[in-house]
Design brief:
133 residues; 5 strands; 18% strand
């Protein structure tokens, strides 16, 4: 996992810092941050990203817009995406999965739960050679 670059997208700086801290503790070294989908897409153009963790509700381009933009671009469509959402309603979760999210995590969550989701997605993606988990 240490060789994967991760993009963390969330409008809340405190949430980005929490996710980055968990990733760092897991051994990730190459991490980027973005405060919304627009900044995330720019980061994707400038850097090679292997895994994205994104919030669902953000100003500017939200998580749904980001998912759609990534999945419609042949250069990015295979990047695994974990969606973080404060909305645990079934419709939100289904919309995320239907639009290409590999998995989701409802806020609030513990660092241990986040680590478990990250490990699960990375393991499945590596086993399937980049296919959706």
């Amino acid at each position: 996992m240490n060789d994967l670059s991760v993009l963390v997208v969330d409008d809340a700086n405190s949430m980005r810092k929490l996710v980055v801290a968990v990733l760092r503790e897991m051994g990730f070294k190459d991490m980027f941050e973005a405060e919304n989908g627009n900044v995330a897409l720019q980061t994707l153009k400038e850097h090679s990203i292997d895994f994205i963790i994104t919030d669902w509700k953000m100003p500017g381009m939200d998580g749904l817009g980001l998912l759609k933009a990534i999945r419609s671009n042949p250069s990015y469509k295979e990047i695994p995406i974990l969606v973080l959402t404060g909305q645990g309603v079934r419709e939100t979760v289904m919309e995320a999965i239907e639009n290409g999210a590999n998995n989701f995590l409802v806020k609030p969550f513990t660092p241990a739960t986040l680590e478990k989701k990250i490990r699960h997605i990375v393991t499945l993606v590596k086993k399937k050679g980049g296919a959706k988990a």
